[in-house]
Amino acid sequence: MSTLRQFASLLWMNVAGLSQRVGPAFTLILGIACAVGVLVSMLAMTVGARRQEMGGVRTDRLVLVSTGAPSGAQSSIPRDQAILIRDLPGIRHAADLNPVAVSEVFVTMEARRRDNGQRVQFPVIGVSSGLQELYPEFHLTVGRMFRPGLNELVVNGACAGQFTDFSAGDKRRIQGVEWLVVGQFEQADTDGGCTVYADADSVSAAFRLDSYNQIVIMLQSSASYAEFVDACKDNPALKIDVRSESEVIEEQYKRLNGILRFSAFFVGSVMALGATLGAANSLYVLVDARRLEFATLLALGFDSRAIVASILCEAELLAMPGAFIGAGVAWICFNGMSASPLGFVFHLAVTVKLFLIGVGWAMAMGFIAGVLPALRGASVPVTVALRAN
Length: 389
Prior knowledge:
There is one protein chain. The protein is of the alpha+beta class. The protein has two domains: 3-54 and 255-388, no CATH class; 68-238, no CATH class. Helices cover 51% and strands 19% of the residues. The protein is built from 13 helices and 14 strands. The protein has helices at 3-16, 22-54, 79-85, 131-134, 157-162, 200-207, 225-234, 245-252, 254-288, 291-299, 304-334, 352-377, 382-388; strands spanning 61-66, 77-78, 101-112, 119-127, 139-143, 152-156, 171-174, 177-186, 196-199, 211-212, 214-218, 240-244, 338-339, 346-347. Strands 1, 3, 4, 5, 6, 7, 8, 9, 11 and 12 form a ten-stranded mixed beta sheet that branches. A two-stranded antiparallel sheet has the order 2-10. Strands 13-14 form a two-stranded antiparallel ribbon. The chain is elongated and about 95 Å long.
């Protein structure tokens, strides 16, 4: 009998005999299901966070910072350069014929959390005219837009939900002056955390600033990118770097994403190690219960490689339902659940890709757990069978 036919026969015997070894088999499946469920649930946080971060990113929006600045917070663009940038080719113009180029200045303010009263600082973004043309996804839900030259604020829903005194009509004290919250908005890429907009000139006056941190523009189309970048390079008066919106968002959330990925794989690896050891122990029990059977097969001329392959395949077959159960429980319990690590709010997302990662994780655990028990089953001395006879 060929090795392949031996393997097929042994695998059928293994599967058919599982009804007599329910306990160890169930322990193996349960351990792998728990490990896969934890891994998929943790990775669902990274997927959900990235979806939230990239929800409003567009290829025709660019962010301009001063040359060499690592981020907008460390950038400084003089006002005379901001005027020059608005006249560059490739920039889209709004219905009023003004270029869609919004100058932004960042300052910080303090607020008190609703849940524990803790004081937290976060940025206020002072913006020039054209915000709603720059961000079509920006929608006022309560109140009105701030007026240029006045100490007024508009906030997103996360501010009102997380902090006190951020509802429309509330007053906030910034730099010793009262600012009125006049509206609340929704915007795809800001819903995860508190975002506050105000008039750039009012913010600059309050904090005595004479430059902008960054300028965000909208191109006529994605194809206008090269034209705009070349125009920036050809103008020696401009000391700016041009970055895509996705690049800026990636850098902004780099720390958070790194923490989420590390946590997912660290916790998942610890769980996988425990599940693998438990699965190996269960497979040892299964193999030891069949020592006489394996010894007899070897005495009859069965190839030890066929025995090893059949045990490994049995381990993989037991790992598969564990993967489906773990990923299924993660989807039922956690898909769409809200999370807010480090103040950033998003919804967990269990995707097909994560399901496949869970299956691969389970198969790897099954294989690793099955190697030593398989070798043990294939090395049972033939004398065991002879003594039994």
